[in-house]
Amino acid sequence: MKRILALILTISSFCLCSCSDKTLTRSNLYFDTVCTITIYSGGSQEVLDKAFEKLESYDSLFDRYEKGPLASLSSDPVKVDPELLELVAKNLEYNSLTGGIFSPALGTLIDTWAIGAPETKEPPDFEKIAAALEHTDPGGIVVDRENGTISLKDPQIKIDLGATVKGYVSEKLKEFLEKNGVKSAIIDLGGNITLIGDKSGEPFSIGIDDPVEPSKILATLELEDTSIVTSGTYQRYFTDEAGNRYHHILDPTTGYPANTGLKEVVVIGEDALDDDFLSTTLLLMGYDRAKNFIENSDTFKENQYIFVTDDKIYVSRSLEGFSLEPDQTYELEYF
Q1: pTM here?
Q2: What string of DSSP letters covers 68-117?
Q3: CB of 270 within 8 A of CB of 226?
Q4: Are strands 217-223 and 245-247 parallel, antiparallel or unpaired?
Q5: Would strands 141-144 and 149-152 be described as parallel, antiparallel, or unpaired?
């Protein structure tokens, strides 16, 4: 599962002790990452608690291991929750839209690599990777909307929704909070940030990690009522004895970690699910191909983007005025 921790909130007066009495905040571990919701205006403790009940339910629903229904899929049609059916179908649409660059069928490959927290170990051998790739064809996933079922033409396919699940859940939580009177809030699912409204009439300040030196802030964005999602190659990885690093964003065509020159992609837009999908997909494409994909998409070209390489940052022209932190030396180019 893609674990996005590339955005750090740099919001003044974030802590409960220094905020107004109306500020409510809660955190817990879901989707293998820390999830936090902070309500600044509207809502109530009851609303916040119910939002976390939803988070717990979604964590079980989309888990592809022992807790979730994804683990029970087989060649026989299995009746599944409508929301699970919805997200799997959406992932297959994304796969078609990108010509296979994005794939929800990489579970077997992900398990073969087993990339989590930084550690030292050796990569799987070529034969194991090739064997895993045999069971990553999204065409083997059959979604029957009429009957509400999913089946697998290849029972060894493992559906993994990690590249989109936090975006999907963010949108559902935003809808729930707004329906229950919340006017200002931050939904932070492991760095997938969704903003509701503004903060006391001012934009939220969102810091973006430097992917080369993650302890440093690359830049700070002033944003409100939007979604910000980032994918990077620097949070989940391992290093072999020779010093080679292997990150968790796997290329479905090669079976190996993507090697496109991009270290980080940030997507800012109105739909957290689309943004989640895009951040992974564009990193897999590399800058030139990603830029072409965006420019030829009626759906996505209005979003804002930041692409980071080892020494250069490409920024959407609509973000003109974007400025790096004073200690940053990246070359900046607008597109």
Answers
A1: 0.92
A2: SGGGG--SS-EE--HHHHHHHHHHHHHHHHTTTSS-S--HHHHHHH---S
A3: yes
A4: unpaired
A5: antiparallel
CA distances from 194 to 135, 168, 248, 275 (A): 34, 11, 23, 11
SS3 255: coil
Q: List, for residues 287-335, the tens digit of each pLDDT value.
A: 999 999 999 999 999 999 999 999 999 999 999 889 999 999 999 999 9
User: For residue 196, what is the enclosing H or E element?
Assistant: strand 192-196
Q: Give the strand pairing for 78-79 and 264-269.
A: unpaired
What domains appear along the chain, each with residue ranges and CATH number? 7-60+164-334 (3.10.520.10), 69-152 (1.10.3980.10)
The tokens for 74 are 């087989």
